[in-house]
Amino acid sequence: IMPEAPQSSATLQSVLAIAGAGLFAVAAIVFTFFNPDLADHALRSIIVGLVTLVFVGGAWWLAGRALRSTAEAIGGLGLLFAVLDVWAFAQLTPAGTSAWWLVAAGTAVAACAFAIAGRRSGLRVWQAGAVVALSTIPVMLGIATSTGLGAALGWVGAAYAAALITRALPLLRHPGVRAGHAEAVALEVLQLVSVIISVLLAGWLVATTNVGGMLPASGVLLLVAGHSMLASRQRLRALWSFGAGASLVLGPAVAVTGLSLQSLAGTVWSAAHCLRAAVALLNLIAGALPITSTV
After folding, report:
1. Whether the predicted pLDDT of 67 surpasses 60
2. Residue 99: what are its φ and ψ, rounded to 5°?
3. pLDDT tens, 191-208?
4. Which of 81, 62, 64, 79 is nearest to 13 (CA)?
5. Chain-centre distance for alpha carbon 88
6. What is the DSSP letter of 211?
7. What is the torsional sign of CA 28, 34, 35, 39?
8. For residue 268, what is the DSSP state?
9. Is 50 exceeded by the pLDDT of residue 16?
10. Per-residue confidence (pLDDT) for residue 169, from 0 to 100
11. Residue 21: burial class (beta carbons within 10 Å; 0-12, 13-18, 19+)
């Protein structure tokens, strides 16, 4: 019978390594961002970048030595410092330009790098962080427009991105890593939050711009319906199916109301035609979506 001491020693070494890495990360953050003598932005960015490389390289090395839990923890610290790198990159934004443009660009580059590194090293924390970050890029682009419609479209875009990335998860996963559901669950939660926020922003458009915001809000609702149909094969099938039907009814209804208030309903659209179109679309959805029954 093999003694238990070597296993306990390895576990203790992992705990000590994680604790040491955490203390090092805290010390690096305090020294870099709370040191009054370090006011040079370029030097601060270089320090943060070097610390990021240390954590990323250390996590990759540990993953190759089969120290999976330690590698995942240190890899998570590498992700944290990558966020700080993106923040430092965004400080280069020219005056009069939204910093969210550079945040989105930096996030795209970092997320792609971590997605590739996660697939090659098998570190799931990098894969999960990468797919979530990629999905949120449309939100950053929408906020950068500084308009309510842009923000709403950004959140809808995030929902679409998360739905498409969910289908691509098998391609991003390392061949030697067991398939997990954490990434898929995180992406579906992100989709749900994105859809809720986009619908609220559509309502905000109507409330703040009155008639002028009804047509854009209708477009947002129709995009939400398209996403719900795309997401209807995920875990929350019934919820997404309901969302698709409700959005397809509300979208044309909001458009008809806006056109009616602008005295254009008689020449452009009629309520009867829109109602027929909505019913036809709902019939198509009912025939296309999978029907699930619960006992």
Report:
1. yes
2. -65, -15
3. 999 999 999 998 898 888
4. 62
5. 21
6. G
7. positive
8. T
9. yes
10. 82
11. buried
Among candidates 267, 228, 274, which has minimal Cα distance to 250? Answer: 274
Listed in sequence order, the DSSP H helices in the chain are 5-33, 41-64, 68-90, 100-121, 124-144, 148-172, 182-209, 214-230, 237-261, 271-288
Is residue 132 within 8 Å of residue 113, measured between CB atoms? Answer: no
| CA pair distance 121, 62, nearest whole angstrom | 10
Residue labelled with tokens 């309502």? 203
Average pLDDT of the residues in 260-275: 54
Higher pLDDT, 14 or 164: 164
Task: Decide: residue 95, CB within 10 A, 0-12 exposed, 13-18 middle, 19+ buried.
Answer: exposed
As given in the structure block, the two tokens for residue 144 are 């950068």
Q: Locate 62 and state its tokens.
A: 């540990």
Over residues 44-57, mean pLDDT: 86
- At 226, list the tokens: 């398209």
Count of Cβ atoms closer than 10 Å to residue 90 Cβ: 19
CA distance 257 to 267: 14
Contact 44, 32 (CB under 8 A): yes
- Over residues 129-178, the pLDDT tens digits come to 999 999 999 999 999 998 888 999 999 999 999 999 988 887 777 655 55
